[in-house]
Amino acid sequence: MSMFSSTNQRTAPTLVSLLALLLTGVGCEVPRADDSAQQAVMHDLAYEVMLPLNGEVEDEALALAAAVGAFCDAPNDEALAAAQDAWRAARVPWKRAEAFRFGPAEDLRLGSAIDFWPVRPDSVESAITAAPVPVTPEHIASLGTSAKGMPALEYLLFDPAGALEGSDEVAKRRCSFARALGDTIGKDATTLHQAWSPEGGAFVDQVALAGAGSKLFATGQDGVARVVNLVISILHQISEKKLGGPLGVSTGAAPDSTAIESRFSDNSTEDLLNNLRGIEEIYLGQHGEHSGKGLSSLVRPKSAPIDDAVRNAIEDAKAKAAAIPGPLRLAIVNDAAAVQAALDSAKALRRLFTADVASVLGVSVTLSDSDGD
Q: Which residue, 145, 177, 185, 164, is CA-closest to 74?
């Protein structure tokens, strides 16, 4: 009996130690999956697509502010047309960047401050009436999102009801408000770019260093998952809000032109096309002269047919959007079939990302809704 007890006392600590090692992982290495391909994609998307686009957002927003100021200094038809052109130009990088609207745009609430839509003219008119003279960017910053940003400025630049021309005090007040809107948009765009810039808040490196020191993404795969879900999110907005809502299919109601993005400028289809171009740039890893690895470089080695299908679906969605005849506000009534075709194509692209791309890349889709079909 004493011999048995002695042996048991000697072996018990050894078993406990082995169990502790198994539970804690001390003394053994668990192989980590190779994340280098995902890390490379995140680096290139950050520096070849996301950062350049945010720089262009700032450049075009500042040019818009200058154009609105020039018009208010010397109101005439030529200056108004220049301000309208500047507004449209500012929409190009802004709408493309919606394909990855996260980080500072959300954290600093700059996305809604710059682009809350559809615009509410009553809110804008009330804000003009109550504004001090001269109107300052600080005052604009204090307003609710429905009375500021690009949509509010669009209403003032393009709609006859929001007309800025005239030499009376009412016209001067309205132009002062428009000038402050432009200055605030420029200031917000600068804040956004600085937050991304390596010389500023360096958010670009939180994206670029996914899995290699980023505090935001522990692995490159975490970053890729976020990007895929951002693309799915903008495709959801395109199908359900930008097309389905105005057409009435998302609401079960009659077509509603007041639900259309950029309806006063009739820039709605171009906004939509730039959303799709932004998705394409994220997928291919290319923007203008900038080129790197995009999501396609991860998809194609696993499934060339899925990669081909996504590329073709992007082209089809762009073609269907471009084929919408005339202004979207009229097409939803007069050419509903063409708008429906664009909607169906956007949904098809969304299904590819939600099912095929997410599956082949091992991404969990976080958008918790049905496809709307």
A: 164
pLDDT at res. 29: 46
- 204-226 core/surface letters (b: 16 or more CB in 10 A; e: else): bbbbbbbbeebeebebbbbbbbb
Q: Is 305 left (phi over 0), alpha (psi -120 to 50) or beta?
A: alpha
* Burial of residue 285, with CB atoms counted within 10 A of its CB: 0-12 exposed, 13-18 middle, 19 or more buried: buried
Rounded distance between C-alpha atoms, residue 118 and residue 116, angstroms:
7
> CA 159: distance to chain centroid?
26
Domains in the chain: ranges and CATH? 54-199 (1.20.1420.20), 220-361 (1.20.1420.20)
| Whole-structure pTM value | 0.89
Q: For residue 168, what pLDDT is reported?
A: 82
Which positions of the chain have pLDDT values less than 50?
1-30, 369-373
Q: Cα separation of 112 and 77, whole Å?
A: 30
Q: How far apart are CA 80 and CA 228, in angstroms?
A: 40
Q: Rounded distance, CA 193 to CA 191, Å?
A: 6
Burial class, 351, CB count within 10 angstroms (exposed 0-12 / middle 13-18 / buried 19+): middle
Rg (CA), the chain: 26
- Distance from C-alpha of 187 to C-alpha of 108, rounded to nearest angstrom: 13
Q: How many residues does the chain have?
A: 373
Task: Tell me how far apart the alpha carbons of residues 296 and 104 are, in angstroms, rounded to a whole number.
Answer: 26
| pLDDT tens string 44-99 | 999 999 999 999 999 999 999 999 999 999 999 999 999 999 999 999 999 999 99
CB atoms within 10 A of CB 7: 10
pLDDT value of position 31: 57
What is the Cα 135 distance to its own chain's centre? 29
pLDDT of residue 161: 84
